[in-house]
Records
---
Amino acid sequence: MLTGANVVLPTGTVKNGTVAIDGTRIAGAPLADAAVLDVSGHWLVPGFVDLHNHGGGGASFSGTAEQILTAIRTHRAHGTTTLVASTVTDEMDLLVRQAGLLSELAEQGDIAGIHFEGPFISPCRKGAHSEALLRHPEPAEVRKLIDAARGQARMLTLAAELPGGIDSVRLLAEHGVIAAIGHTDATYEQTVDAIEAGATVATHLFNAMPALGHRTPGPVAALLEDERVTVELINDGTHLHPAALELAFHHAGADRVAFITDAMDAAGIGDGRYMLGPLEVEVSEGVARLVEGGSIAGSTLTLDRAFKRAVTVDRLPVEHAVKALSANPARLLGLSDRVGSLEPGKDADLVLLDADFDVRGVMRHGEWVVAPQLG
Ligand SMILES: [Zn+2]
């Protein structure tokens, strides 16, 4: 039993609250003769859910099983207890092989599924994706990745304005895979069509898409205005101006925003040379850029930093930050019955934060991943 904390629940924050844990789950009532840990002066929030993450700890989700587990452990230590593994553009046969490996880890419960980012994206907005390997989102090609993931494909980012794009959005929706609009050069109208066809996520809104213009409102306006769409935001202080983040929150509302890391290998480590799929990346002062061309190449963010920034720099209410980091992505993934809030019966996945919102403990499935450090 954890007592004395500010416990953030869907209904609001309970001061001097208690969270009881029974095995791997959150218990409904305080347990008789349970061990009690007084965590007064701390916050208890649900474990973070990352929809979009390429790696960390020097390893990537495009690597071997061992490297994938290193990346998972790195992000868990920063409070991410549920994570969707993202691939980057590569040869189709390599992506098919990687999907097989990732699907095994998803079946074991290590990850919550696979997000394919590329190769079905726009060469105009390729970001840190290899241009030579981009292709049109022909449904038959998209289908190859869905099949290779053996039921573990959760999301696929595509530029729906490319040939085959709208049909692929429909195909994804039919298979229960989230169609995410991103790395796109679409107009406002083309984006509206994609949403009508079933797209429900904006991949890192603002980044890798045309800017909001008063005569060319583009994807940003279409994605922000539609209540069916959840917008991903990379809240690292580099990818977005704080005013852009505020604008997104204001228009989408706290229930339609998901903070993601879009992290690459350097997350949880630091500056140096890394690979992002087939491309070389230089990380300097925490900002990852392609060696060739200088595009921003993912982030070195962990979700605990996104949380701290949200409540200290962006001045969001803690309850809104919890929605963006846990409840909303959990709902989007269809996992709300298990994760995303500190309610009885759900997995005992939680993050213990001190008064400065730094991580002091992480629990997953009732076990401490980071043992509580109090005082
Ligand atoms: Zn990404």
Note: The chain has two domains: 2-43+355-370, 48-339.
---
Amino acid sequence: MLRGDKVGLRARHEEDIPILRAELYDDVVNASRAEGGPWRPITPGSKDPRLVVDDKNQGLVQFSVVELDGGTLIGTATLWGIDTHNRFAHIGLGLLPSSRGKGYGTDVVAVLCHYGFIVRGLQRLQIETLADNAAMLRSAERNGFVREGLLRSSAWVMGEFLDEVLLGLLAQDWKQESKQVKKQVKKQVAEV
Ligand SMILES: CC(C)(COP(=O)(O)OP(=O)(O)OC[C@H]1O[C@@H](n2cnc3c(N)ncnc32)[C@H](O)[C@@H]1OP(=O)(O)O)[C@@H](O)C(=O)NCCC(=O)NCCS
């Protein structure tokens, strides 16, 4: 399992599937906003690739996210579109409604960066999110992602076209960011 400060990223377990289906994918608005495609119901027991992991797919790594304290399932995290030639991938995450706004999203992004840059040796990570998704934008920017572009009217979501923001983070900037955070922490500790 990969560990952050508050969350763990582990393999998908069979018992995660009904919870994720009910709380993330059966929610039409959440799914329409997060997935970049039309919502469709997932039949219980189906092998939908968002829920049932295909370990042979080398371009995609899917995690279940759990609280480190107690191991409760709180969501999903994904490294997708892994391009081993250009050493680049996208990240995605979705938390159960009761687990949002508690700092878990920021920690999940941090763990995905560690996985992408350190475990997988990637050079660049990318996020696309709706321009009004303040929590996702903030979770990304807190980890050093920078806004690289605005994709105007790129997403059809529940009856309207919305803009998306493209954010990117390079390995060298992430390391610098981590060093700066460590320096700040050392300084704060020294001042106490
Ligand atoms: C987007 C998501 C992953 C963010 O995770 P989270 O745990 O809710 O976010 P955090 O608690 O780490 O908060 C991150 C920052 O956003 C802010 N924030 C959280 N919820 C917010 C909201 N509803 N509106 C505005 N700001 C918000 C927090 O205050 C925090 O800011 P700070 O770092 O300045 O304190 C989560 O809300 C989620 O799963 N949403 C639904 C699915 C989704 O949108 N996925 C992303 C698709 S690209």
Note: Residues 23 and 97 are 7 Å apart (CA to CA).
